[in-house]
Amino acid sequence: MPQLVKMPPFPEVTKENVTDALLQWYYSLGWNEKATIDPKKIKIHQEDWNRICRQYIDAEGPKGGFFFMNYGPAADESVKQGYMILEEGWMEEGVTIV
Predict the structure, then answer these.
(1) Is 72 exposed, middle or buried (0-12, 13-18, 19+ CB in 10 A)?
(2) By CB neighbour count within 10 A (0-12 exposed, 13-18 middle, 19+ buried), where does 45 fall?
(3) Which of 73, 28, 50 is nearest to 58 (CA)?
(4) Is-contact 44 76, C-beta < 8 A?
């Protein structure tokens, strides 16, 4: 069953922490590096998504925006701003990619 939870603050994205900012945010959700995350199953409000994506673009140009589009959460206008929906299967323990 999907969970509506308050979205943890997203770290400020800079040229020095482009990858680490997203990893730190996933750590704040409870990710432990042994699990696989499906970012399509993590949904945040479109405005929250736009704000974070803009930070990636400002830090790295278009490739920063593409990085966030591919590895960041999904945008969904039905989610209350400042919250997120964690759909079932957003994180799978013990899953390995072959």
Answers:
(1) buried
(2) buried
(3) 50
(4) yes
* pLDDT tens digits, one per residue of 58-70: 999 999 999 999 9
Report CA-CA distances (Å) from 97 to 36, 69, 92, 93, 94. Answer: 8, 20, 11, 12, 10
Rounded Cα distance, 3 and 22, in Å: 20
Both tokens of 77, joined, read: 């206008």
Q: Which of 6, 52, 61, 58 is nearest to 29 (CA)?
A: 6
Q: Which helix (H) or strand (E) holds 5?
A: strand 3-6
Q: How far apart are CA 3 and CA 10, in angstroms?
A: 19
With a threshold of 0.85, does the pTM exceed it? yes
- Provide the residue count of the chain: 98
